[in-house]
Amino acid sequence: MEKRENTKEYEFSNKRMTDIKISVGDALFSNKNFNIIAGPCSIESEDHIFELAHDIKKAGAGILRGGAFKLRTSPYDFQGLGKVALNYLVSAGKKENLPTVSEIIDVRHIDYYADLDMIQVGARNMKNYTLLRELGRGDIPVLLKRGMDSTYEELLFAAEYIMSEGNSNVILCERGIRTFENYTRNTLDISAVPALKNFTNLPIIVDPSHSTGRSELVEPVSLGAAAAGANGLIIEVHKNPSKALSDKEQAVTPSELSNIVEKSKKIIEVLG
Amino acid sequence: MEKRENTKEYEFSNKRMTDIKISVGDALFSNKNFNIIAGPCSIESEDHIFELAHDIKKAGAGILRGGAFKLRTSPYDFQGLGKVALNYLVSAGKKENLPTVSEIIDVRHIDYYADLDMIQVGARNMKNYTLLRELGRGDIPVLLKRGMDSTYEELLFAAEYIMSEGNSNVILCERGIRTFENYTRNTLDISAVPALKNFTNLPIIVDPSHSTGRSELVEPVSLGAAAAGANGLIIEVHKNPSKALSDKEQAVTPSELSNIVEKSKKIIEVLG
Amino acid sequence: MEKRENTKEYEFSNKRMTDIKISVGDALFSNKNFNIIAGPCSIESEDHIFELAHDIKKAGAGILRGGAFKLRTSPYDFQGLGKVALNYLVSAGKKENLPTVSEIIDVRHIDYYADLDMIQVGARNMKNYTLLRELGRGDIPVLLKRGMDSTYEELLFAAEYIMSEGNSNVILCERGIRTFENYTRNTLDISAVPALKNFTNLPIIVDPSHSTGRSELVEPVSLGAAAAGANGLIIEVHKNPSKALSDKEQAVTPSELSNIVEKSKKIIEVLG
Amino acid sequence: MEKRENTKEYEFSNKRMTDIKISVGDALFSNKNFNIIAGPCSIESEDHIFELAHDIKKAGAGILRGGAFKLRTSPYDFQGLGKVALNYLVSAGKKENLPTVSEIIDVRHIDYYADLDMIQVGARNMKNYTLLRELGRGDIPVLLKRGMDSTYEELLFAAEYIMSEGNSNVILCERGIRTFENYTRNTLDISAVPALKNFTNLPIIVDPSHSTGRSELVEPVSLGAAAAGANGLIIEVHKNPSKALSDKEQAVTPSELSNIVEKSKKIIEVLG
């Protein structure tokens, strides 16, 4: 039975680049390093992000994330504090000397992100090629999450939409795909990490929070990703997860984060 | 085993609207009518769309579709003729007295679509809530395709993003979901048609071209959709499919379209 | 990106057989006919199947199904009445002059089915090649359901396991595949009907009950299948669905069955 | 939107057993230990398994696997050497002092496995409840692989089919599920390891060979599984993978196995 032909010969520009180093503030991403990004799903107030940034720094994570504009399934759910939250995030990052990253949801908002160290494109927007092209015309690093329905090839081509415009500072992120298993929020495809390395030298990180959707699974899955060769993690953290305004089931506490940082570093070390 | 809670009690605004009628030019969509939209994947030239519009009218379809801005997996594939193709489409539609629809891929392009009768949001943009909200502030009908990874609930909430801004002229479209079966391009979820009717009175149409990705499957799947209660079809047509600039495997010829129109009307008639 | 090679050149023996006619009692299955099989998920008592057989005959279905040995997810759920229920089924079929079919779950039970007109292999056993081979050594027609995780190719090869042993009386059944959508029990893959016809001349029927798992979806999906070219339907029926011992959400009443029979016949007729 | 109810309150018997220790020959499985099973997909000759057993022992794996009866998609592919291969396996295991395991495909073959230390139920037979019950009546440990379309709940219930008959020596195995991604053979669901531990104290191992279907992914995925808390691995090994009679793309060499053993032990050690 002949399969529908949906691939073709091509050479990804990112494959030709053999020694990729991406500076995100003071943090350096490459296909050999390991970095941990952490922070709240949504920034809930100025105090909230300042306090949490302090805890996250203490726990040993190297980059601060925080949601300002949120993509929620329902238009009636909390949509984030918006632009002001980006200011809070930048200030909190400066205070704690942590580089910052936040998700963009509107191509017309790019200017809002000028003071951040990285811009995240969420899974829902991985095929928003308009947004990708526009980000490709800037030089801020882009954290590109795999869409829930996207093949490796489609993720690599999405990166190509950014890179073909000139911006090669792209970090890929496996965050789980949609499958029939619904005990977890999505199914983390751990094989994506080594499989993508067959095709690209871009750094590849893993999101254990959105993939599992369950806080008790975040540590084991994080350690699994580290051992499988991921170049980093992006983890949702909240001081009091049950009171979080969004994604409360999947946030870990700062002390749980600290354990993950410590253990994943041990794994990286022992594997050389 | 307690499932992850990912639903909640809500009442969709579209469910409260019990007698929905949406005018797309002269065509009337409702949850009782049946309309056929047809046209090329990409508009390849002015002549191309004029000739095809004539054939499509003759074949009995009621609305003309044509791609101007294309979302392609690779940035190196043909991306459509752009804005000028929208002008060709509107002119061809006027000449043949056919209402027109084309896909939008950039929230900053809305003005380009002012002379069309409907704006299509493709599967890749179903969760581009920024775009949906902006379309909700206008009054041009929106053809909203289900994302390849989207549940019924997420599709209904996407419609809600449009409707909550004021525009209730939304037509839903089942176009296939991503599954393990890859002989077909996607898996058409025929049950979506009656299942969505449990929750909404919005019209629901089916796309047999993108779901199957194979021209020989377009007719049987179209007839299946008609019999299952779909309120219409959107079909890709090309005079010479093997020469099409995009999606050549799935286009049917005008004469094949004519058969589908005829047979689906018979089904609608016999089922009352 | 080169895909993992998982197909090969082959010619299915069933494709070489161009004029397949399978007698199931008085009913004739082919890739041109249309037959409706109906009955309860489980046979609950002798009276239960006798009464229902009468109603099913009256509703116009041509073959009687009924479960004797049940495969249930939990070992603690009702597992069917077993061998005695097969006797009830055969007697009820004789009384109403309806051919009979029931599912086999154990290769050591084949003798129990000698008086039935067809043996069903359920989705869970589609890859139980031991069972398939053994059924291939007999001559009772086999109703082979597609596994929930099975590609078209795997279904065709499963048929080949039966046919390569000598029994060519195989009827294929699309009954829904596992996807992320969980409003329905499974996702009916309507395209399987015409797609499989590209490769085989075996009759292909559709199971709207197990695929949707919801009684209100059974009629529209049945009609869709008829219009898409299916050679029959297999439908779960119960006089009082809410009291059924298994699969209560998906059973239709005899009067609903009667509507489906009538409307699907109209569709078959109008499509010629 | 109310989801279809497909779960219920229950207490798995395996959850009540809090200190499970399963002896497989000299090897001890528990939810705290870590064991590596290795061997060829198919036993190709007596010499083949004797040589490989020696290499596997040397590489540090603790249990020997080898296929005698094979379940192949096509009836025309190599189906294994059958019963004689079980004898070869047992002898090779004795010579190298390695416990042995092989897959069963026919409920009538149980006696053939009397001299093995464990019986494997493959993914295709996870829902062959007839077979599971029969294995439950013996006391040989059962290695139960998750079906490609099976939820955690269904896997746990399959174990329950064995345990409810009296045999509590069950080891679960995550071996990848069917998803839309087809660069890999299946998608390894790494989260299954910690998620299942929420419900059971049975040991859980991972199969990196069948899940990825690509030899170069076996090491990283194996290490990921070890770090995520798996209680073992089952790995396909061949001296000359390109000449293997089955599954050649996924076999690793003895020297690659040796690396995996060494590195995974380091991970287990460092995580305590």
How would you characterize this protein structure?
The structure is a homotetramer of 272-residue chains. Chain A has 272 residues and is of the alpha/beta class. Chain A has a single domain (24-271), classed as TIM Barrel (Alpha-Beta Barrel), CATH 3.20.20. Chain A is 35% helix and 15% strand. Chain A is built from nine helices and ten strands. In chain A, the strands form two sheets. An eight-stranded parallel beta sheet of chain A has the order 9-8-7-6-5-4-3-10. In chain A, strands 1-2 form a two-stranded antiparallel ribbon. In chain A, β3, α2 (46-59) and β4 (63-65) form a beta-alpha-beta unit. In chain A, α2 packs parallel to α3 (83-96), α4 (129-136) crosses α5 (152-163) and α8 runs parallel beside α9 (254-271). The radius of gyration of chain A is 17 Å and the shape is globular. Mean pLDDT of chain A is 93; it is low at 3-10. The interface between B and C is large, with 41 and 41 residues.
